[in-house]
Design goal:
Blueprint (H helix, E strand, L loop, with lengths): L5 E8 L2 E8 L11 H4 L4 H4 L7 H12 L6 E4 L6 H8 L3 E6 L4 H11 L6 E4 L12 E7 L7 H12 E11 L5 H10 L3 E8 L7 E10 L10
Parallel strand pairs: 3-4, 3-6, 4-5, 6-7
Antiparallel strand pairs: 1-2, 7-9, 8-9
Helix pairs in contact: 3-4, 6-7
């Protein structure tokens, strides 16, 4: 027995139906060998990866129509990974990452549940460089700025893994930490556009903002190719 219970959701994104195995509720917890605790995941945080949050749906919607042709894409803090599944369904080159020890098996299960090849996955601790991961044309994330220090940490991930010409797309529910993140990325040469976003089928209920950062190879702060 895994020590937690799950349920299956049916979610429509970009005209396609996706089935997702998620945790039954926020009360689920199972860390028998202390793996999550050693990674710094508290019992209160443990179940957060296993839910489909509005920001995750917003990011998935954006990826359903984004220009991804020829781009190598990294999802940071993927959790259940709906955006990565959408990109996999579109045939994009996507790598999903998270620190949670169950993110990979849940993502593999959900790939199979939707008759997709398993999304390529790498476990990532934002504090630790992962040189073998390489660089990407697009880095995406949803609701990852929920602690003050995350702005600087995520900006460091971008600095290590974004090409000189790159995009960063973040769906943010408005926790108050996006401004310092934007300042960090501006120092790396990124400009930002922002728009309020609603979920498909709920046009009158904005669920957050979509922050779209772009950098060209002439920007101050861009890495040398």
């Amino acid at each position: 027995m895994p020590g937690y219970s799950t349920r299956t959701l049916l979610v429509h994104v970009g005209g396609h139906a996706f089935h997702l195995r998620v945790l039954s509720d926020l009360q689920q917890f199972s860390d028998p060998d202390g793996h999550g605790e050693r990674l710094g995941i508290s019992p209160a945080q443990w179940s957060l990866f296993g839910q489909l949050w509005p920001a995750g749906r917003l990011l998935a919607q954006a990826m359903a129509t984004a220009d991804v042709a020829g781009k190598r894409i990294l999802e940071v803090g993927c959790g259940i990974g709906l955006a990565s599944l959408v990109l996999q369904q579109r045939g994009a080159e996507i790598v999903a990452s998270d620190i949670h020890p169950l993110a990979e098996p849940f993502l593999a299960y959900n790939s199979a549940l939707n008759a997709l090849d398993s999304v390529h996955y790498r476990q990532m601790d934002w504090d630790l460089p992962l040189e073998t991961l390489g660089r990407f044309d697009m880095i995406i994330a949803s609701d990852v700025l929920y602690e003050r220090g995350h702005a600087a940490l995520l900006a460091e991930v971008v600095g290590r893994h974004a090409h000189s010409v790159a995009e960063v797309v973040v769906s943010d529910p408005g926790r108050g930490n996006s401004a310092p993140f934007s300042r960090h990325l501006a120092a790396q040469g990124f400009s930002v556009t922002e728009r309020r976003q609603a979920l498909d089928g709920e046009p009158d209920v904005p669920r957050g903002r979509l922050l779209h950062y772009r950098r060209d190879d002439h920007a101050v702060g861009a890495p040398t190719p």
